[in-house]
Amino acid sequence: MAVNDRRFTQVPPRATGDRINMIHTAEIQFSGGYDQWQIGEHYTISGNGGPTMTVHVHGVEGSGTSGHLSVHYSKADKYNGVSPIAGQSIIDPDGSTPAGTVVDVYDLYIQANNIMGWDNPSYGWNIDRFGSGQIRFGEGPAELSSFNQLRTSQQKLIAEYLFLKDINPAAFSNALIGTSTVTHEPTFQAVKLEIGDTLNDQATHTSNLYHPALAGSSTIFTIATRLNTKTTAGLAQNWGAFDATDGFFFQQNGSTLNVVHRKTFEGSTTNNPIPQTDWNKDKLDGTGSSGMTLDVTKSNLYWIDYQHLGGGRIRWGVYYLGERVVCHEMYMENKASHNAISNPNRPICWSMKCLDGLAYTGNQFMYAYGASVYTESTADIMEEGALKLYDRSHTLDGNLTGAKYVFSARPVEQINGLENHSLYLPKRLQVSAFDAANAEVDRRVEVRAYGRCILRGEEYSQKTYTTVEFDTQAEHLAHGQQILEATIKGDGEIDLSKLFNTIQEGTLKVNAETTTSVRKQPISSITAANPAVLTLGANPITGQNRHLFDDRNDVTIKGVSQTGPNALNDTTVYLAFTGGNSAILYANLADLDDDRVVRELTLSSTTNVVVGDTITVNGAGTAVITALNGSVASVEGRTNAALDVGLAISSFTTTSGGAGNVTTVALQATTFPRDYQTTLGAVDGSGWAGAAADGDIEGTPPSRSAWTFMIGHFVAPTSDTKVNAALSWKERIQ
Question: Residue 188 pLDDT > 60, yes or no?
Fold first, then answer.
């Protein structure tokens, strides 16, 4: 057979006629006892004086004893007219196991009609392994979701993040180690993450929202990022859909660009980096079909999507010249023992870390320009959650007007020992208000709801059958942002779903970085008094002069310059709230909690002992009587630590003329009410040279924000009002 005869034939006359392209295949008759033929594999044919060839099997007919193989030859063998001969051995793909013997060979030809480009006939229409024609449009190939569905305009926005005015502190948490900072760059409308050159210096910017992933539908993350360096050894810069335990992200590690698969199972976290040189789609080094040479020090838009159930496919890519380019795919199905990650609901995260404190000097930084997350499903994600209900009965004092504290609600921080990143969507609030003595008489009340009120003395407990906890005992000091006000006479219902209907802004959630997040709040003053009173400046999230940290929160004092208060610098103190932005400080939590426990004094006489009196106890200071139950007086505002359990019998007097002996002192058996007036264990600043007026408090902020509900009279009635409140919401556990 002449060279090239397998590639085309000629229209007569043979020597000068036009050539017609042909597709060559071959049928090889075989014999032998092998019965493990694998379509799509390559087999070697050799021996018996014939040529050594590799053939690609695309069909098998017959049994293991005898039959026919449909094969393709290599391009070189087709060009050179090489064919097997009878008696040659067919070898299994393992390279050693005999698979059969060649009996005969038949050449077959298929006339090929190729659709070519006019300007470049080497570009033809390609057919995939399933027999489908590959289609692309003028602006690039058709986009398929991770579940191979054609992407159309049915994507549904879950969240978008733009840093136009600030770092979006309400939506993100920051873990800062060493001298690291996360700041806003107004010129670029970007977030700048910056770290120093000390080992383990780290900065993160992680969304509090863990974006929901639906089974059988993919979620696509797009992330805009720019790095300041791509060659610095000892520095790792990450961006993508991940947190400390699981996820998928891009990574510049020294001079190596990776895509990374991170997973945590059975308490062990594993990182699987795939370097750019091993990317299996487009290496983005100028050699791929896109022609792009990726420069991470320029602003680029990256994307990630993935399957979850049963392993599935993970894809990393970029957008370039208007097209979506896949740079690497990873397939987990039929390979891994588990799903690709333990929790498919992923946050957006940018992070950087110093891996080697000796590898570079000075600060390094990266920019986060924004991100968006879409689900490729039209399902109402939150409506798939379970409906939950909490009801609360409350009695309003008939002599009082204005809204009174009823309850607060917040998600639990953990579920079965795992981080809780579930979403909670309010649905409905029902309120019934009526005369406490006559249920037939309706009352007009106002209902208010606030986000992040300033409370002290909370006592949260988890509501049965829910993952939400409630407090009914806290003392309300100041309002947070008001999110609801309604008037109800008798029975009323508020449809909260009309007010809260988005995942990004309408749901409650636990913050990311619950144990490592760091926030600062400026100090307005620390008084030189006993106790020292701390007053705070603007809350970095709301901008108002309100506490960022919770009551009893531990914080570190930083940067105070005034002699005296500066002794608190770099020490841990605990906040005991006294107002919306004021607190007294404790060196330890035990002293704070002990001061708040009410003491109960057993009195030998209660004649002329009146609630509200100041009682003076011989050798044990003074206190204020807040309740009198028989011979037992509850007191607050103790001025001497001796007025405690173990006090010997001591005489007393009161401002109303009472007198006698205190025979015993006991701690109040119940939790409430608390004593917020005693400050015996608080930090004493009376010996300081002066008050402080600078510095910051720094610490881990509250991991979740509570909603506070308040109900009150417009006009005080002559008797008490009974109020029943029922709150329902949707929980999407993740």
Answer: yes
Closest by CA to 701, choosing from 588, 559, 542, is: 542
- CA torsion angle 52 54 55 57 (round to 10): 130
**What does the DSSP assignment read for 95-119?**
SSSEEEEEEEEEEEEEE----B-SS
Nearest to 47 by CA among 93, 78, 85: 85
**Which of the residue ranges 77-81, 232-236, 402-406, 722-726 would you say has the lowest mean pLDDT?**
77-81
Exposed e or buried b per residue across 482-506, where buried means at least 16 C-beta atoms within 10 angstroms of its C-beta: eebeeebeeebebebbeebeebbeb
Name residues whose C-beta falls within 8 Å of residue 410's C-beta, 6 or more positions apart in sequence: 460, 468, 469, 508, 704, 705, 706, 707
Question: Closest by alpha carbon to 449, among 717, 150, 710?
Answer: 710
pLDDT in tens, 467-494: 999 999 999 999 999 999 999 999 999 9
C-alpha dihedral sign at 256, 259, 261, 262? positive
pLDDT at 8 over 90: no
Which pair of structure tokens corresponds to residue 8?
Answer: 């085309």
Mind spelling out the 3-state secondary structure of 299-316?
CEEEEEEECCCCCCEEEE
d(CA 376, CA 630): 68
**Length of the chain (residues):** 734
Q: Is the pLDDT reported for residue 1 higher than 60?
A: no
Short-list 523, 473, 510, 494, CA closest to 674? 473
In whole angstroms, give the CA distance from residue 443 to residue 700. Answer: 43
pLDDT mean across residues, the chain:
93
The DSSP code for 217 is S
Which residues, 6+ apart, have CB-to-CB distance to 291 below 8 Å?
none
Q: 3-state class of 592 per DSSP?
A: helix
The answer to whether the CB of 509 falls within 8 A of the CB of 210 is yes
As a whole number of angstroms, the distance between CA 455 and CA 471 comes to 10
Q: For the purposes of burial, counting CB atoms within 10 Å of the CB of 359, is it exposed (0-12), middle (13-18) or buried (19 or more)? A: middle
Q: Is the distance from CB of 136 to CB of 123 less than 8 angstroms?
A: no
Dihedral, 279, 281, 283, 284 alpha carbons, nearest 10: -140
pLDDT above 80: residue 142 = no
Where b means 16+ CB within 10 Å and e means fewer, 403-424 reads bbbbbbbbbbbeeeeebbbbbb
Q: What is the mean pLDDT of residues 540-549?
A: 95
Task: Report how far apart, in Å, the C-alpha atoms of 677 and of each of 256, 346, 473, 638, 670 are.
Answer: 60, 45, 17, 8, 18
pTM: 0.82
pLDDT, tens digit, for every residue of 205-232?
Answer: 999 999 999 988 889 999 999 999 999 9
Query: Residue 231: its pLDDT value, please?
Result: 96
Q: Rounded to an integer, what distance in angstroms lies between the CA atom of residue 292 and that of residue 716?
A: 73
Q: C-alpha distances in angstroms, 341 versus 228, 251, 265, 511?
A: 30, 18, 8, 20
Is there a contact between 348 and 373 (Cβ–Cβ < 8 Å)? yes
Give the pLDDT score at 7. 61
Q: Where are the beta strands (DSSP E) in 32-168?
A: 42-46, 53-62, 66-72, 89-91, 98-111, 136-137, 140-141, 156-162
